[in-house]
Amino acid sequence: MQTILFHSTIFGPIHSRRLGTSLGVNLSPADGKVCSFDCLYCEAGFNAQGPGKAGLPPRDEVRRLLAEKLEAMHAAGENLDVITYSGNGEPTMHPDFEGIVDDTIALRDKWFPQAKVSVLSNSTRLDREDVERALRRVDNNILKLDSAITETIRLIDRPTSPSFTAGKAIEDLSKFAGQCTVQTMLVTGEYDGKRVDNTTAAEIDALIDAYRRINPRDVMLYSIDRKTPAENLCKVSREEIERVADRVRALGIPVSVA
After folding, report:
1. Confidence of residue 49 (pLDDT cuts 50, 70, 90)
2. What is the pLDDT of residues 114-123, one digit of tens each?
């Protein structure tokens, strides 16, 4: 079974195809996965592997480990483009997420003031005031919307809350108009006897309408690039992604394709 990617709180730096040289911060356990989605394509595996025994890293430990790493990188003359919150689950589920973001911005300003602070979020906790405040403070507020159709979200992203719908996601994302990047994974294939495809004409029409309503700063479109826990998924061609991107650009919204 495919399992968690990261066995530490601070990892990298690594080269991100979307963000550049990125120092990662994992707010999930170092020995398990904690997420409000259970995506078919998640590189950290399915939630069934469990949360582990280590627990979420405390705020003061995150601050200490990040400070040590940034100081060491600065002393070594290393380059850093971005500090990215991702890891083995959904970072906004950490109870001290807002305070950790404040700590990160202060440390960034001290050691690498040119670097950006990015959060990769699945958009499930945007209705929390503390999460909203924190996301408005970061440079790159990158929020997921893989489909504008609830049935497809439940098939591909598999939210753990039965009340999470495409409509709720779009409404919450609209609060960040001009202050967020919407990130969409395009994927086809099969899982558990069901066809998986968020690239159909109906899907793309619904996404375009959602992007129009959300009015994000920009959109990231991409497809799978590594092994996925659901084995029968297929990468969408760059040509097909570019056709979708052209429709988004027609709305006046910048698009990046990876």
Report:
1. very high
2. 999 999 999 9
Which tokens in the block code for residue 255? 């698009």
Residue ranges of domains in the chain, CATH in brackets: 10-257 (3.20.20.70)
0.90 exceeded by pTM: yes
